[in-house]
Amino acid sequence: MITTLFSLASTTLHAIGAIFLVIFIPIISFFGYAQPTRIATSTPEVSVEIATSSPLAPVPALVSPPVHKKAVTVPIVVPKPVPRIIPPPPVEATTTLSTAVGTTTLAIASVPLLTGGTAHAGQSVPISYLQITNVGGEGALLKGFWVEQNGSSPTESVIGLSTVDDRGGSRSSAGGAEGSTPFQNGVALAPTDAYFAPGQMRLFTIKATITRVVDSYIGMQLVIDVTSIETAAAVQGQFPIRGTTWTIAQ
């Protein structure tokens, strides 16, 4: 009897619970409170067999058979010693430009511009005006002019001789002091030291200085001619070159 009642009560409670679920689950779902339904699923286990091959054995590297090379004999060339060239010692110049001369020719001619006149005591007067040209292909050095007194006055009336070129760069003299006697045996050298480049031309004036003591020479004439020139070069010209005539006065 009790068992029957218990069974009836259990059935009734199950029915009430089912009704409750039918009524309230839609309401709860409407308001977002529905709980997710868990569905139990079973995942089948899959066993996969992977076929693996046995490890490959290493392939041996191909080795080429050794090649026997023929021994090549390379001749050793011993270089010949280069001869050492020793330059000659520098030549020390023993001359300057003014003395560097060669085989050449100096041409000399008179320039007829002097008129002469009266030569007073102690005066220096021009006796010859000359043009000199180096007509050769090398340098030439002119050292002086050889002159000769051919006038009526004795050579003692002249105490000095001097030369100067047209540029004034070459000036030389001999004597000049009272009592000097540049003439020896009637001839004297009027000095200079002039270098002539190839083709160069210069004009030279030769002067004579009269003594201050002219009492015994007054009225006598001074005529000094150029007889030659002092040079190592060949000379081209007509000698003697007549000098200008001067009359000595007090």
Automatic annotation (TrEMBL):
Keywords for the protein's UniProt record, in alphabetical order: Membrane, Transmembrane, Transmembrane helix
TM stretches of this protein: 12-34
Domain of life: Bacteria
Keyword Membrane: yes
Keyword Membrane (UniProt): yes
Protein name: Uncharacterized protein
Organism: Candidatus Kaiserbacteria bacterium RIFCSPHIGHO2_01_FULL_53_31
